Amino acid sequence: MSRPSLVWFRRDLRLHDLPTLLSAADDGGTAVALFVLDEALLRPSGPPRRSFLEGCLRVLDESLGGRLLVVRGDPTVVVPAVAAEFEATAVHVSADFGPYGARRDGVVEGALDGVPLVRTGSPYAVAPGRIRKSDGTPYQVFTPFRRAWAAHGWRAPAETGAHTVTWIDPAGFDARVPLPGPGADDPEFPPAGERAALDRWRDFRDRDLTGYATDRDRPDLDVTSRLSPYLKFGCIHPRTVLYDLAGRSDADATALRGELAWRDFYADVLHHRPDTARGNYNHRFDTIVHDSGAAADRAFDAWTQGRTGFPIVDAGMRQLLAEGWMHNRVRMIVASFLTKDLHLPWWRGARHFMTHLVDGDLASNQHGWQWAAGCGTDAAPYFRVFNPTVQGEKFDPTGDYVRRWVPELRGVAGRRVHRLPDGPPPGYPHPIVDHAVERRVALERYGRMSSP
User: Fold this and answer.
1) Which domains does the chain have, with CATH numbers?
2) Nearest in space to 251 (alpha carbons), one of 218, 209, 217, 221
3) Which of 189, 243, 420, 433 has its CA 20 to 30 A from that of 404?
4) Where are the alpha helices (DSSP H) in 273-387?
5) First-to-last CA distance in the chain?
């Protein structure tokens, strides 16, 4: 038998539309399928994301006939060791453009002792760094990026599957880690793996895409695509979605393409500015004053537990704890509340999200938070201070979303649930802040920021 190559799965847990497999097929057609359980990535992930990842790995292993080699350890050590064990001719991956992934792959490449690390494709419709302005610099504003992104276009889905290469059975490899079965406490949402991703996309495309442009901001309707966990782990590639939307210029298809463009934009921003994973994109905000101390910590705890006394905020935070997911409009509302009503730094909220979100994606999460906090890529951020009560009335006009997640308020009819004119019912807290007052405080603090 000829020497195999190594296909190292990361954020591409699927077999269809996976260009990496075409590259492996060209490299002899025999391969070892590898996934590395990397503590550097698992550590900041809470139970929902780890459980979903394990489910995706089980599905992938089943699709490979039980031939997925799962190993725990540092990829910079594990991958060269596995490559040496199987005398691999090459290691094939989808390119990783994140700060950690890019550094890791550089170290792995240097440790492979002459075995090439072959990068084919990426988790994005258009890979970060590919689209630039006419002067060669990266885009800093979304709208022109989106126009350039659409003009650039993307490849058609790759025609691949389980039989694109011949998979070697790694049963005798000593370091192989058995995948745990589903736990009794694993969240039911969402079902894991490639088949579930494709089913979810086709169901959304055929049932809920109509009306998406107008209804996607309504958390009470639950008509968003819910594809984000599958995109995070590559159970489906965005070009699969874009291919199905080809030729459609209606408002609904345009809106969905726009959401995929935002995903690529934030990945591009993080690629060019890896410091923004932890720090402000706009350095002027480095001087803003945040609250701290015991009172600030109590406010943060109330926010994480959905006990702020602002119904739409509390509903979103409780949905996050229950489902490992939150509606995008509500993500913006709760982020604005934390940063502009409670005056806490965006990275505290971003860290909480990354712990609990099934779809926790570093680029989208961190830059979504920076957008809400005003320190991101938006040109005029500080005028955007969401009034959580008005936001609730506008986007949850019947109050059904709040009542779904805040059982203490189920006896409050209609949109009255957002203002509670008769006061909070037993068991539900009074508002922990006065929004009108805190809005003025936020704007005053923005006005005192130093120039960069």
Assistant:
1) 5-122 (3.40.50.620), 124-157+195-272 (1.25.40.80), 283-447 (1.10.579.10)
2) 209
3) 433
4) 294-305, 311-323, 328-336, 346-356, 362-373
5) 62
Find out whether 72 and 100 touch, Cβ atoms under 8 Å.
no
CA 49/CA 356 separation, integer angstroms: 7
User: Which DSSP state fits 201?
Assistant: H
Q: What is the pLDDT of residues 392-431, one digit of tens each?
A: 999 999 999 999 999 999 999 999 999 999 999 999 999 9
Residue 138 exposure: Cα atoms within 13 Å on the Cβ side: 16
- Residue 394 CB burial class (10 angstroms; 0-12, 13-18, ≥19): middle
Q: Which residues lie below 8 Å from residue 108, measured CB to CB, with a gap of 6+?
A: 75, 76, 79, 80, 91, 117
C-alpha span between 376 and 322 (Å, rounded): 29
Triad 204, 358, 38: Cα angle to 5°: 130
Type of residue found at 397? P
Reduce the DSSP state of residue 37 to 3 states and report it.
strand
Residues constituting the chain: 452
442 CB-contact burial (10 Å; exposed 0-12 / middle 13-18 / buried 19+): buried
In the predicted structure, residue 198 carries a pLDDT above the cut 60: yes
Look up residue 421 and give its amino acid: P
What DSSP line would sit under 91-126, residue for residue?
EEE----SHHHHHHHHHHHHHSTT--EEE---SSSS
Give pTM, 2 decimals.
Answer: 0.94
Dist CA 4 CA 31 (whole Å) = 5
**Cβ proximity of 124 and 267 under 8 Å:** yes
Top-confidence residue, 179 or 355: 355
Q: Cα–Cα distance between 276 and 392 in angstroms, integer?
A: 30
